[in-house]
Design a protein that fits this description.
The protein is about 75% helix and about 0% strand. It is an all-alpha fold.
């Protein structure tokens, strides 16, 4: 089985891979810093940055954002700023939600 470090060395010879890797360098640096801080603080992987309750909160806020966005679209439509084509995809979303409830 190949080691990741060996594959990385091999892939770095590819210009597209190297360019993409270098573009992500700040994110990798941040990830390393976060991991180092977590290890220093003695946090275990199961003590992740987010608890299940945090994730539920994130999803709830996302759903509220979607609802707010839909409401805003209706306001714009009533004001004549957008046409019916803006709502074409919503019908599909509503149908999917109804099927999930069944």
């Amino acid at each position: 089985m190949a080691k990741v470090s060996g594959l990385h060395k091999k892939w770095m010879k590819n210009a597209d891979y190297r360019e993409a890797y270098n573009e992500l360098a700040p994110e990798f640096s941040l990830a390393r810093a976060v991991i180092k801080a977590r290890v220093t603080a003695g946090l275990m992987p199961e003590q992740g940055a987010f608890t299940p309750q945090d994730r539920i909160g994130q999803l709830t806020m996302r759903n509220l954002d979607i609802t707010d966005s839909r409401d805003k679209l209706f306001v714009y439509a009533r004001a004549g700023l957008i046409g019916p084509q803006a709502f074409e995809g919503m019908r599909q979303l509503d149908e999917a939600e109804e099927e999930e409830k069944k």
